[in-house]
Amino acid sequence: MRQFPAFFLMDDAHVVIFGDGINAERKARLVAKTNASIRLITDTAPDWAAEYRDRLEMFSSDQAENALFGARFAIVALDGDAEAEAAVALAHAQGVPVNAVDRKHLCDFTVPSILDRGDIVAAVATGGAAPVLAKDIRAKLETLLPERIGDLASLAQRWRPAVKAAIEDETRRRHFWESTLRGAVAEAVHAGDDARAEALMAETLEQFSQSDQTPVGAVHIVGAGPGDPELLTLKAFRLIQQADIVFYDKLVSPEILDMVRRDAERVPVGKSKGEHLVPQDGIHELLIAAAREGKRVVRLKGGDPFIFGRGGEEVDALREAGIEADVVPGITSALGCAASARLPLTHRDHAQSVTFVTGHAQKGGVPDLDWPALARPHQTVVVFMGVGTAGIISEKLREAGLPGDTPVAVIENGTRENEKRAFGQIADLSSVIEARGIKGPALLIIGAVASLPREAQTLIIEKALA
Ligand SMILES: C[S@@+](CC[C@H](N)C(=O)[O-])C[C@H]1O[C@@H](n2cnc3c(N)ncnc32)[C@H](O)[C@@H]1O
Question: Ligand 1 centroid to 220 CA: how many Å?
Answer without folding.
Answer: 20
